[in-house]
Each structure stands twice: as C-alpha cells, then as structure tokens.
Amino acid sequence: MGSFDGLYIGLSALRAQQTVLSVISNNTANVDTTGYSDETATLAALPSAADGGVAAVGAGVDVEAVRRSTSAILNQQIAQEASVDGQWDTMQSGSDQIQQLFNATTSSGILDDLDNFWSSWQTLSDDPTNTASRTSVVQAGDELTADFNQTATSLNDNVATLNDQLSTEVQSLNQYAGQISAINQQVMNAEASGNPANQLLDERDTLVQEISQIAQVQTAQNADGSLTVSLGGHLLVSGTGASQINVGQDVSGNPQPVWADDNTTVNVSSGQLAATQNLRDWVQGTVLPQLNQVASEVITQVNTLQESGYDANGDQGGAFFTGTDASTIATSSTVEANPETVATSSSADEPGDGSVALAIAELQEQTLNDPTNGFVDESIDGAYTTLVGNVGLMAQKSSTMATQQDQLMSYLNDQQQEVAGVSLDEQSTQMLATQEAYEAASRVITTVNDMLDVLINGTGADSSS
Asked: What is the pTM of this model?
C-alpha cells in the first residue's frame, strides 16, 4: 500500500459524504414538492489490487448512484385508478347539475306546475262560467310552459357545455402527450450520458397520472429510458413523438375525439373524457327525450279534449297549447287573449257544463297508453316523476362511486407517500450519520498527514543535534 493511499481513501470518503449531504439537502428542500420522490445516494467500495505482496485494503468509497424511492407497480395502479377517479368525479359534478335543473326552475318546478295546472281545471269544472277561474287556468298553463321551456333550454345548454368540455379535454390530452414526449428525449439524453434523471422521471410520472385522469392509458418502459403511452390500442406517445388527437363528429353530429393520422374514433374506456361523452349522450339521448315526451303528451291530451269541447260562447274549442315538445310548448295566443275561448263543456248549448274541464283535470291520475310517444300504462305526472327519479338515481350513484374512488385514491397516495415521500425524521438521522462519517474521514486524513510528517521530516534526523 502506498504511503499516500490513506489520504486518497480519506479524500474519497469526504467527497462521498458531501454528495450524500447534498442529496439529503435536496430531499429536505423538496419535502412539500408534489410528485417528488425521496432520493438515496448509494455508496460502493473502490477495490484495489495487491501491491508488493501486501494485501489490498481497498481504494476508498464512491457514490455508485443516486436512486429515487419509487414503486413502478404502485405508480401504475395509481394511474389506472386515477382514470376511474376522474370519470366518477366528472359524472358526479355533471349529474348534480342535471338534478338541480329539475329542482330549480322559474317557479316551483314542473311537478308542482302540473299539480297547479290540473287543480285549476278542477276548480274551473265546478264553475265554468267563472271568468277568474278561466284566467287561472291560462296562468297555470303559462307557468307550466315556462318551466318546460327553461328546463329544455338548460338541458340543451348543458349539452353544449359538455361538448366544449370535450374539446378542452382533447386539447389537454395533446398537451400532456407532447410534454411526455419532450421529457422522453431529456431522459434518453441523460441516461445515455450516465447522468441521473430522477427529477425528470418524477415529472413524467406526474404527467402520466394527469393524463390518466382524462383517459385511461397504458404505459411501457423502454430500455433507452423512454416511456411508451397507448390509448385505446393506439400509440399516443412513442419515444420522442406524440400522436395528435382531433375533434371530429359522430353520426349524430356530436363532437368526438378522432386520431389525426387515420381519422378513426379514439377508444376511451374511462376517465373524464369518457364521462363527458357519457353525460352528454345521457342528457341528449335519455333525459331530454323523456322530458319532451311528457310535454308532448300534455299538449296532445289537453288539446284533444279542448278540441272536442265548447267554450263559453258555444263555439268549438281550439288548441290550448301550441308546439310539439318541451322547448316549443306554449299557451295558445287565442286563449291568452281571451280566456272565454277555453273549452269546458261537451255541448254547445250548455255553457255551465264542466265535463271537459273535469276530464282534463283527471289526466293527472289517468293511465295513458301512447307507445308512439313513449307512454305505456303511465300517467303524465307518473312519467315525469319517473324521469326525476332516474336523474336522482344517477346523481346518487355517481356520488357514491366518486366517494368510494376518492377513498381508494387517498389510500393509494398514502401508500405512495410511504414509499416515495420525504421523511424529515429520516433525513435528520441520515444527516447526523453523514456528519459523523465526514468527521471520521477528516480525522483519518489528519492522522495520515501527521504520520507522513513524521516519516518525511523525522526519519533519519540526527538525535544529538
């Protein structure tokens, strides 16, 4: 062993512990940084060959690598569940908004409007010659049509908002894909040069979780350090390239995500984007048509009875409502201008007869069979109550699923924090150990230096002088 080997060994220890301290400092500085993974400097002994028949004692220590604390399996599970979490959070928010539309209209709600409407006809049937009762019927019709109109408008506005939201989510997908491909390039460059890319890998993991909130993706780690990301069986990110997603149209003319390279539909199984499409299709294909069916049945049944009866002047009754659905239903301008034209009697010669008015009032409980309009053994009020109940069930289910998924995500994030999170207690303990190792290495250098001083300056000196 050479005379100066002890100095080199001590120096290697000082340098290694300085690196360890730098890693500890960086961990402590990022204790609250979202997505940061705790790092550990791994030390490795430097071997030395035997010299002059003397057994080698090693050549000191070196920092082999700075590794981040992470679990690939846990990260993958979090990304997968993040997609489900994003889906149910979006479903909860969207279905709550739909439910509120049926609970917060211009007055007290369509169901109360229907009750008031039928009641006004009941009152009119008791005294068909009462002008005030006729006016009340027209006013009740106005309130009912206003709430139908507003609810339908709000539902259509909701569909438009969801379509805008879909476009925004597609834009975010493209943005995240571009960012991941850019980081792939940086990671590949860093690993090719032997430099650690821990912060880049943390950032990429965070981006994968963010993109998973929008749509469930599949990832694969490559030997060059890059990450391949697939969406619905189509490559989204490959190496340093990212595929573009456009907003096209489905057969109904609604916006839908399509791949820019082949114009095929993007297959989205879960995530915010899937929820946005599902909500839109539910509102447009179920909620709004059912509301229109109720409004159409009100128009059809009331007008049929009105046109079969006679008004206060003995004239044949006309339509009470105009329009065909919830968006267009309105009280006839004729009865608006003159409530005397409201038909109440089944005979032209009996103005005091209220049988037609009574028949309209009894529509509240009457079971209807109108398959062409979606009614089978159901009353008008019953059909509307079913619609509101189904909306409520969707909101309740979405809330329950969102809560359960939030709890699962909280558990997984806690698990991830245990693996990758920075513990200040652990960092303090490591700092003390590093300090002691650094001081010991310093003493080694001082001792070797003293020994060399004796060897160089004291050996062979004249003891008598």
From this structure: 0.85
